[in-house]
């Protein structure tokens, strides 16, 4: 009797592992693709993480929430890196044109680099502050992942929009 109770207890107490997560970027991509003109794309942030939490058995545990949020964070981080590279290339061309003209105007490529470095420090400090609200409790992990995901997604969307301006 004790042995079978222990097996049941271990089965119930087994944490959700990263491999157990049922995650796909599809909910976020579908949401973004379905936006109507002038609809705020930030509405779609978190769609895939939420679907992951709903689809994964035990998906509302702190470990699973952190895992699902981290997976969507990776999606947005990849988009951010592409957008930053595209905007950086575009702004470097502007810098070269300004150099060629001998202009004293502030160089957008250098300003972009300074902005992105400051944004990373701001994001990290903001999310550390968010985690501090949890006093070392288990909710701090998902809170941090949610903060990182949201801020990274917002920056990716900002840079993507900036890249469309020229």
The span between the termini is: 72 Å
Mean pLDDT: 90
Number of helices: 6
User: Uncertain runs with pLDDT below 50, 5 residues or more?
Assistant: 1-14
- The third-level CATH topology is Substrate Binding Domain Of Dnak, Chain:A, Domain 2
CATH class: Mainly Alpha
* Count of separate structural domains: 1
The count of DSSP E runs of length 2 or more, i.e. the number of strands, is 0
| H/E series | HHHHHH
- Major pleated sheet: none
Strand content: under 5%
Sheet/helix structural class: mainly alpha
- What general form does the structure show? elongated
| Helix-residue proportion | over 70%
Radius of gyration, in angstroms, nearest whole number: 21 Å
**CATH architectural group:** Up-down Bundle
Compact summary:
By secondary structure, the protein is mainly α.
Sum up the structure in keywords.
single chain, 166 residues, Substrate Binding Domain Of Dnak, Chain:A, Domain 2, disordered N terminus
Please tell me about this protein's structure.
The chain is mainly alpha-helical. It has a single domain (17-163), classed as Substrate Binding Domain Of Dnak, Chain:A, Domain 2 (Up-down Bundle). Helix content is 71%, strand content 0%. It is built from six helices and no strands. It has helices at 2-13, 26-33, 47-55, 62-101, 108-132, 140-163. Helix 4 runs parallel beside helix 6 (140-163). The protein starts with a helix and ends with a helix. Residues 1-14 have low confidence and may be disordered.
């Amino acid at each position: 009797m004790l042995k079978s109770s222990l097996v049941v207890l271990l089965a119930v107490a087994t944490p959700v592992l990263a491999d157990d997560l049922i995650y796909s970027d599809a909910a976020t991509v579908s949401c973004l693709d379905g936006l109507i003109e002038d609809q705020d794309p930030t509405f779609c942030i978190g769609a895939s993480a939420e679907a992951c939490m709903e689809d994964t058995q035990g998906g509302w545990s702190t470990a699973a929430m952190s895992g699902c949020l981290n997976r969507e964070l990776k999606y947005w981080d990849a988009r951010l890196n592409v957008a930053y590279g595209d905007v950086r290339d575009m702004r470097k061309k502007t810098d070269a044109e300004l150099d060629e003209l001998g202009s004293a105007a502030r160089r957008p490529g250098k300003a972009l680099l300074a902005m992105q470095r400051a944004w990373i420090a701001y994001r990290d400090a903001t999310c550390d502050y968010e985690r501090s609200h949890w006093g070392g409790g288990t909710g701090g992990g998902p809170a941090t992942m949610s903060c990182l995901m949201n801020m990274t997604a917002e920056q990716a969307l900002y840079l993507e929009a900036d890249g469309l301006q020229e």
